[in-house]
Amino acid sequence: MLDFEESHSKALLNSPWLCKIHESTAYLFKCQIQEDDQSCCFIITDTERVWTEILHSRHISRRAVQCSSSAADVDYDEEAEGLLIKRNLVILHNLHRPEAVADADFSIGPSKRADLEVTLNLEDFTWRWDAMSLGSRQAAKLLSVHLITPLISFAAMSTFIDEPLREISASSLTRAADSQAKTAKRSLAHHRRAAKSFAYPSFGGGLRPGAPGTSPAAGYEPQGQAPTFNLGLTSPSELY
């Protein structure tokens, strides 16, 4: 089992999040194919935990053989195996596209081989990921970089778009998101500046659990003019 490193995290920044539901739990996952060293990287999360798997070269063809009973007894020479690896990389890339994932059968659960076994099946192709759990600190950092800060930036961008997101054209939204992503990739501070959007009640309030439609606080509904808050100080001089 290869360790998940910072270089894998950076490579995955270019990959979109995909989603499948299993037993009422939404799983988000990414897959990045590296053509230069014929490797692939996979991460999956339920937003609380993160599992990963890194496969290189012949491990990819070995996994393909394990997943396909029809190929189990076939012997490949070195040249044929190289072609098989390239073929499987192309198939993996296509399998982890949004339109393919939408149609693929998805199963997930523990196994003897790994902490989490993830299986995708589309048409006649089956693929299995044997993912291992990341430590809490590394998982938190990965979720922050790949999910939380991009969501903040995207939400901030949507706040200042004149049209509702459901009415804006896909091409316009893609251009806006790409522009936001290119700026953010140059500087992580861009994501942090987007966090200033929390100063707007419509933004911060919209991120409440259960929003929209939940009250600002359980059992409390503001009525009339908002009161002037008093910290209990008798005069401004007490602040100094």
TrEMBL record:
InterPro entries: XLF-like_N (IPR015381), XRCC4-like_N_sf (IPR038051). Keywords: DNA damage, DNA repair, Nucleus. It holds the Pfam family XLF. The keyword Disulfide bond does not apply. GO terms for biological process: double-strand break repair via nonhomologous end joining. Residues 16-130 form the XLF-like N-terminal domain. Residues 199-240 are annotated as: Disordered. One of its GO terms (cellular component) is nucleus. This is XLF-like N-terminal domain-containing protein. It comes from Tulasnella calospora MUT 4182.
